[in-house]
Amino acid sequence: MGKTGSFRLLLAGSFLMGLLFSGLVRAEYQPFVEAAPFAGDVDAAVAAAREKLGNEGFDVVGEYAPTEGVYVLVVSSEALRKTASRSKRGGYGAVVSVAFEQTDAQTRISYQNPQYVAHGYRLEGSHEAAFQGLAGALGAKGYFGAEPISKANLRTYQYAFGLETFADSVDLGSFSSFSAADRQITERVKSGELGTELVYRVEIPGKNQIVYGVAMQTDDPNAHGAALVQAVNNEAPRGYAFLPYPVLLDGNVAETLNLRFRMALFFPDLPMMGGDASFFKLRSAPDAINDLLIAVVDGKIEKEERSGGGFGTF
Length: 314
Prior knowledge:
By secondary structure, the chain is of the alpha+beta class. The protein is 34% helix and 23% strand.
């Protein structure tokens, strides 16, 4: 090994040692990582981050502004897609969102914890390299969003008895073929007629599987991405890296994750009721999102199931 290779290994070792002492490397996980803040506005922060992410091997596969003063970049990489390809419904874990939030004098930057994503979506891998790459590109001041959760609990995560898990997907319909489904989903989400925007489209290598990122910008706050985050997250940095919402095409069948699983996975410490922020505020959101995505995708559904009404909706 040459001097350059030895130097890179030394740097990597020093970086990991720093993470160990800072408490960022753990046997338990939290949903979001706060990056180093940027002394400037969101546009400048995004431009600087884009270059750093590229240097760490990440591809920016999508971007959008969910609300004023907030911007979201979605990144993927060969390693993320390869890990995703090893799991049956692994496409959900092929991307990681990075959020930029303008505050008084700086931009707060945060991103989904790739390891939390890997275990929450039951991938055959841990996304450790992606975690190190994002921390190297953007920094890692600390975690936020929840108390630490063990790998075992993440891989079987359920907010409460009777609520959905990762296995309980929402059927968005079937199509005559994989290519026909891809064409229809892409065109209909892009059209924006129902208040959606196509943020990303990522193909999973070696299989007929695509994950789409759907921005929900409807007039209904129950099916509006930024409104969902603001309803449960009051202080910066907010969990805007939760966005956008994923749709998975696997073969000729499309699906998404029920909000009662996905929102709870990324905000697991929120109470069911009470206080300024609780899931009770989102009691109508699961059906609103399901209805929106079913209408947008417009696949053939044999039997549509609804969450029900009232408190039990979340």
